[in-house]
Specification:
The protein is an alpha/beta fold. It contains 7 helices and 7 strands, in the order H-E-E-E-E-E-E-E-H-H-H-H-H-H. The protein has a 7-stranded mixed beta barrel with strand order 1-4-3-2-6-5-7.
Length: 319
């Protein structure tokens, strides 16, 4: 059976679309085989929350944000749909807290679970909503203490500078010591400079030799790369040719079988062998039935054994 090219292209397209769909949902973190319940939460401002942001409990992702819609008939409140694993039970009073997951402003919904003793929410319920304080609000609240700490730090720096002014003699002695050290350094500088020049000269020679070596090796690597590319191309071309030849032979043999050529083709299209075997089985069945009914016709049994024909003849002559 020869498969058309149109069928192969269609099958490849369907397979690619299926893989793309499942792969895209996997990258979004959507488990297609996990049953989820749908809950809702209302916010005045979602601060950049988007579809597919995670829903977490104690840092564990248990769902995703499914859909976001604005309710203009209710004061422009934002309705957020939450798809949560059906295994999670949400006690009545559970809060959907909108939080920042990092300093870049990534958003998530954290569920603050309530006790289930007062009942649990069912699929389609609306949860209580709340919004975590952002970085700006935290800085605004802590601006006063930070300013006080900065003022205290400046005061300490001023006191340290005043103490340095009172100890000018110690500072002068320290400067003298530093000056002596710089003098010794300037005296040893020519010797160190000569050693540095020798080191740089040797490094320059080594780099020149290394450059020449790399230039001489570069054609070898180029030839090796061309050789490997040729081998890859040759192996791929040979494999494709062999595959095409096998498919052509298979199509030819299937066509011959369908047209009744050869032994297998005749067996598939001509029922003469089947008729012959059927007749033979029927004759054997009749033979076995006759053998059971008349065994003496086919097998002669003598209790004392067969006598020789010559003895029977001599007896007849004597009589």
């Amino acid at each position: 059976m020869k498969i058309s090219k149109e069928f192969k292209v269609g099958l490849l397209a369907v397979t690619s679309i299926t893989i793309l769909y499942f792969g895209f949902n996997y990258l979004k973190g959507v488990d297609l085989f996990q049953r989820t319940d749908t809950y809702y939460a209302l916010y005045n401002n979602i601060d950049g929350l988007t579809v597919s942001n995670p829903v977490i409990i104690n840092g564990l992702s248990v769902g995703r944000v499914g859909d976001i819609d604005i309710l203009q008939n209710k004061g422009n409140l934002v309705l957020v749909e939450l798809g949560i694993n059906s295994d999670i039970q949400l006690g009545k009073g559970t809060v959907a807290l909108l939080i920042n997951t990092d300093f870049l402003g990534s958003k998530a919904i954290e569920l603050i679970l309530a006790e289930t003793t007062n009942g649990i929410h069912i699929d389609g319920d609306t949860l209580k909503s709340s919004m975590d304080e952002g970085l700006a609000e935290i800085l605004q609240k802590n601006a006063g203490p930070v300013a006080d700490n900065i003022g205290t730090t400046i005061s300490r720096i001023n006191s340290i500078l005043e103490s340095f002014q009172g100890n000018s003699e110690k500072i002068n002695s320290t400067l003298d010591h530093i000056e002596k050290m710089t003098g010794n350094l300037s005296n040893n500088l020519p010797v160190m400079e000569n050693k540095l020049f020798v080191l740089l000269d040797n490094l320059n020679k080594n780099s020149t030799e290394l450059s020449e070596l790399l230039v001489s090796i570069k054609p070898v690597f180029t030839n090796i790369g061309e050789l490997t590319d040729s081998l890859k191309t040759l192996e791929l071309a040979q494999t494709l040719d062999k595959t095409q030849l096998m498919l052509d032979n298979l199509n030819t043999n299937l066509a011959r079988l369908k047209e009744g050529e050869g032994t297998m083709g005749k067996l598939m299209t001509n029922d003469s062998l089947y008729v012959y075997l059927s007749n033979t089985a029927r004759d054997l069945d009749r033979l076995f039935v006759d053998l059971q009914a008349n065994p003496g016709r086919y097998v002669q049994v003598s209790v004392f054994g067969k006598k020789d024909k010559s003895e029977k003849k001599s007896k007849k002559e004597n009589e």
